Amino acid sequence: MEMEKSNRGRKIVVAVDESEESMHALSWCIDNIVVSEQTSDYSTTLVLLYVKPPPPPFSPFDVADYLLGNDVVASMEEYSRKLVESVMSRAQAICTMKYSNNINIKVEKKVGSGDAKQVICGTVDKLGADMLVMGSHDYGFLKRALLGSVSYDCAKRVKCPVVVVKHQETN
């Protein structure tokens, strides 16, 4: 198994979302992990993973259709699609800006839907990723207690190394 991994290179899942923290983590990953391990016969696959929030517990044809009408539901779906496109194009732009032709890197984009912790951990396991990279929102104790920490839960659950990159504010 180890020989197979070294031949195919490294597969790194980077969780991306609308936040600056996730884009900083992607940039940090390319600068500090991807570039440092490059050789002519070794490639890295970056899997950019975006997780959409879970759909409402009712069908759009149930309560939403009755209360909101088809136009509002269609608008919400269009907004979600544009948000995914926006996040992925920002992430792709960072990848393009960071690597040049002499770096052997492949970028894949994946979009999941549901609970972020479950989707991220499931994707990492399914892909057999070698590493998971995530940004940290650096919530304080109270926010973390109320909202939970996706990075903490993922670090406990996945089998591969997890790198949580803190975004350092520049004043």
Summarize the structure.
This protein is α/β, with parallel strands linked by helices. It has seven helices and five strands, in the order αβαβααβαβααβ. It has a single domain (2-166), classed as HUPs (Rossmann fold, 3-Layer(aba) Sandwich), CATH 3.40.50.
Structural write-up:
There is one protein chain. This protein has a single domain (2-166), classed as HUPs (Rossmann fold), CATH 3.40.50. The N and C termini lie far apart (47 Å). The chain is built from seven helices and five strands; from the N terminus they run H-E-H-E-H-H-E-H-E-H-H-E. Helices cover 51% and strands 20% of the residues. With 171 residues, the chain is α/β, with parallel strands linked by helices.
Radius of gyration: 18 Å
Strand order of the largest sheet: 3-2-1-4-5
CATH superfamily grouping? HUPs
- What ranges have pLDDT less than 50 throughout 5 or more consecutive residues? 1-6
Describe the sheet with the most strands. Answer: 5 strands, parallel
C-alpha geometry:
globular
* Total DSSP E strands: 5
Fraction of residues in H or I helices:
40-55%
CATH architecture, please? 3-Layer(aba) Sandwich
CATH topology: Rossmann fold
Any idea of the CATH class? Alpha Beta
Mean pLDDT: 79
Terminal Cα span: 47 Å
Supply the helix-strand structural class: alpha/beta
Write the element-wise H/E pattern from the N-terminal end onward: HEHEHHEHEHHE
